[in-house]
Amino acid sequence: MKKAILIVQCPDQKGIVAHVSDFLYKYQGNILEVDQHVDEEIGMFFMRAAWELESFGLEKDAIGPTFEKEVAGKFRMKFDLYFNFPKPRMAIFVSKLSHCLFDILSRVYSGQFDVDIPLVISNHLDLKEVVTAFHVPFFHIPVDKSNKKDAEKQQIALLEQNNIDFIVLARYMQILSSDFINHYPNQVINIHHSFLPAFVGAKPYHAAYERGVKIIGATAHYVTEELDAGPIIEQEVARVRHHNTPADLVQIGQDVEKVVLSKAIKYHLERKVLAYRNKTIIFY
Amino acid sequence: MKKAILIVQCPDQKGIVAHVSDFLYKYQGNILEVDQHVDEEIGMFFMRAAWELESFGLEKDAIGPTFEKEVAGKFRMKFDLYFNFPKPRMAIFVSKLSHCLFDILSRVYSGQFDVDIPLVISNHLDLKEVVTAFHVPFFHIPVDKSNKKDAEKQQIALLEQNNIDFIVLARYMQILSSDFINHYPNQVINIHHSFLPAFVGAKPYHAAYERGVKIIGATAHYVTEELDAGPIIEQEVARVRHHNTPADLVQIGQDVEKVVLSKAIKYHLERKVLAYRNKTIIFY
Amino acid sequence: MKKAILIVQCPDQKGIVAHVSDFLYKYQGNILEVDQHVDEEIGMFFMRAAWELESFGLEKDAIGPTFEKEVAGKFRMKFDLYFNFPKPRMAIFVSKLSHCLFDILSRVYSGQFDVDIPLVISNHLDLKEVVTAFHVPFFHIPVDKSNKKDAEKQQIALLEQNNIDFIVLARYMQILSSDFINHYPNQVINIHHSFLPAFVGAKPYHAAYERGVKIIGATAHYVTEELDAGPIIEQEVARVRHHNTPADLVQIGQDVEKVVLSKAIKYHLERKVLAYRNKTIIFY
Amino acid sequence: MKKAILIVQCPDQKGIVAHVSDFLYKYQGNILEVDQHVDEEIGMFFMRAAWELESFGLEKDAIGPTFEKEVAGKFRMKFDLYFNFPKPRMAIFVSKLSHCLFDILSRVYSGQFDVDIPLVISNHLDLKEVVTAFHVPFFHIPVDKSNKKDAEKQQIALLEQNNIDFIVLARYMQILSSDFINHYPNQVINIHHSFLPAFVGAKPYHAAYERGVKIIGATAHYVTEELDAGPIIEQEVARVRHHNTPADLVQIGQDVEKVVLSKAIKYHLERKVLAYRNKTIIFY
């Protein structure tokens, strides 16, 4: 089914829901989902509406300009319009760990994710065989202190050649430069292996073990310039006990990581995530 | 803050959201919450809207008739209108176990529940002291096979004298007659101490122990004629292990029961529960 | 590290722990794990001990007879002795769904499961490509009403030729005969896509949807003659909401299924599961 | 049932379990629970054993000296011996919030906690009525910057007069001095309203809201000199969404706090908690 998704954001005031729903009704949109949220603290209104395109009274290209003229202009709205065709194009960055990669590829295989994966990029060769077994092109771009800038240039070139819409860091163990991140604002999803904001940075499972926590977690977030501090998309936790070693925590945590990352990808793919003020609204 | 809550239900068709939100906009309603749900299987549309009454352009008594005339009539809508004043009046039925009762009373004490409790009814005297310590009138109505009909007559008389809106069975260990239940359709909330539909009936923790389950649960539901088979409002679970005895399960389960029951009461109080087809829509 | 695992079961009485630990101390066993459980209801004692074999004072083959003579005989103990070498040999049965299969194979790939998989058997061809991509032999044995007995004969022949220790039904959608099951008592692990004992049998997600539950689950259990009624090894749940369709439940549930099944396999591989009286003791 | 609990801690070596269980067997102890743990990182062994005193071959007072002579001395063991009689004596400190207090009192009422509560101390008068309704003496000791030292002197005097064994800070909003804490090492249990180590200090729910986390939590821990940094006894979490205000988080969190604190009290009462290296071993 071909559908359109409208994401709206504006200062809160009376009549917004009425005007947006009048617009969809006027052109005979068959609404699939509508969700709204008001952030009372800052007086902002957010809305997401999805509707079927078939039998809708406006051509795909006319929807944006018409909505701008008839509704958005009156309410100082910022809005984005998405369509579920062509399929979004996702790049995956990995290092050596396979659990998140496998989980994503198996969901694509089974049809759970409606996405194209034109390429996987890695700074190591370890996962090449896995990726190619799934018939996905694999690019090896080694990264070290001396060549980081260069490596990112190569990565960006590949991403642009392949018209990549968003990037998933599936336990990619390199920190991206601000430059890279600014190319893809709120389009780079990372999985961090702790329950943020606890245990920012390297070796969070070891830090969790040292602190003696009874629950560990994982956090999927959009990457921003500050390390592990971007808008949180999804989190999940698992219980651990005193007899669990750091190696146990790594293993228990991996089951959480892969589920959290896949949920975040799913929300992102369905345009259910609105990032603002370093937080996210998730319309699930 | 004085507010109105509108619950709408009708066959799904285009324009419903537009018409309802136009109505609220026309009379300058400051919308607090709007949620909708379409059951695709049966083609039914459900909506809940809450708005501030202050500065709303219709008097309290005029809202229903005006909405009927301007909107509901056109869409064959069934609708209900609620106001958060005066406070809803809740009766509690208990037997001997105190954990759910305490939890409810402590939430009323701390202001978490905006509700009046004109009375507690019990078939035993055990909890009289607790109830009176909270300055709530306690009525002892013993129930056995021979006097059940009579006992229910007394109960209903008390409920009617006290203008009770809804009833919470906080581990009340008697089965209510169909007659009683039909007096209060979707207004009697029960907590069953299992993860329904598993372990219907008496002694569910013992049955769970016998079956060797690894997780136990509790279920809050509206009471219907069929035992433990009414619309489920909320469920929650807790993990158990092989060394837990039936007595442990009872204790672990009580923590789940009280949380589940209190959530169900909260949803009911805020009119966030719509029961239909023996299920519930929960707009939380 | 080479290790031995001793599982003991006997009527409860004083001195059992003392005698078993004296035995391990006498032969200089470096104990890795000891766990015990008493079922008070039936007066039975259960124990699991794991220790390093290197520097142990008895040859591998002498441990059983010596333990029998010095300890087990005195306490009417039944005991089993396992070693983590050679690796256990696991067969996987699948039908068309890939999520559990992928999850297991990816854990073997990453070294999380210390197991050999000599073969995968399926009644369909759909997953052949996946399996062979992991370099695991795939056998297609179609099953229908007319050839069931024959098909099982072929399956058992393959299992015996390959010295299979235990079998995982990774969403294998055929019911095994009593005959088959009796070949592998407590050695066939199934994943059922409901929170047993709720929703036994076919289409549990649809049944859960119809009943309007707020939480769904999955159950890993040993297969016995009665359908979905064998000893439960592990269960887990996930929250669902009124807007989730049966198709959503299937998808949400698959994430639960794969985690539950993998935990059950892990417990089984480490000999941490004791099945008795249609329940399990899990020493994790 | 009268029982003894032995907690043992020593450098790990072969034969410890054998010697301790031989000791209990020799004097005909009916073992109820035995658990052990080895911290491989630091080579330390920990053990907890509980047994019935009736028919045990040593008088209550002779157990410690005999165990010292026959076992502990040989292994450089530190050990503690506890009995479940007389009942432990617990003091509760509160400020204005009632949810944890109610939860504890209702568990004592229903017999879930086998404990005496000789007094509740508060820096406010708000909860006096609740406490006295439960027939527990209430002491009001106001605290401000100028009188803190004096107030603690009064508190300690009351605790000592009442032979208090341990103290529960049930949302007591004052920081105790090092002096006070050193009087009660690992005997002061606090509930912190965040998932530590995230959101140390004041207003953690507001900090969690600002950070946009998807899950909040609560942590029960022993109080040490460093704020919110003592050994963690128990943690639990709850899911929150973008529409939850800080006030919602407070309310959702309170349900978690009371469950976590009560579990920690229960573990402590049953001597199932061993604190060392700023962590805890929990033998549940």
UniProtKB/TrEMBL annotation, chains A, B, C, D:
Pfam families to which the protein is assigned, alphabetical? ACT (PF01842), Formyl_trans_N (PF00551)
- Any one biological process term the GO annotation gives: 'de novo' IMP biosynthetic process
Q: Which residues form a coiled coil?
A: none
Keywords for the protein's UniProt record, in alphabetical order? Hydrolase, One-carbon metabolism, Purine biosynthesis
So, what pathway does this thing act in? Purine metabolism; IMP biosynthesis via de novo pathway; formate from 10-formyl-5,6,7,8-tetrahydrofolate: step 1/1
Where is the catalytic site?
Answer: D228
Q: Which SUPFAM superfamilies match?
A: ACT-like, Formyltransferase
What is this enzyme's EC? Answer: 3.5.1.10
- Formyl transferase N-terminal domain span: 89-265
- GO MF, one example: formyltetrahydrofolate deformylase activity
What is the reaction catalyzed?
(6R)-10-formyltetrahydrofolate + H2O = (6S)-5,6,7,8-tetrahydrofolate + formate + H(+)
Keyword Hydrolase present in the record's keywords: the answer is yes
What sequence ranges are listed for the domain ACT?
5-46
Q: Into which family does the record put it? A: Belongs to the PurU family.
Instruction: Please describe what this protein does.
Output: Catalyzes the hydrolysis of 10-formyltetrahydrofolate (formyl-FH4) to formate and tetrahydrofolate (FH4).
The record's annotation in PANTHER family points to:
FORMYLTETRAHYDROFOLATE DEFORMYLASE (PTHR42706), FORMYLTETRAHYDROFOLATE DEFORMYLASE 2, MITOCHONDRIAL (PTHR42706:SF1)
Q: What is this protein called?
A: Formyltetrahydrofolate deformylase
UniProt organism field: Cecembia calidifontis
Lineage of the source organism? Bacteria, Pseudomonadati, Bacteroidota, Cytophagia, Cytophagales
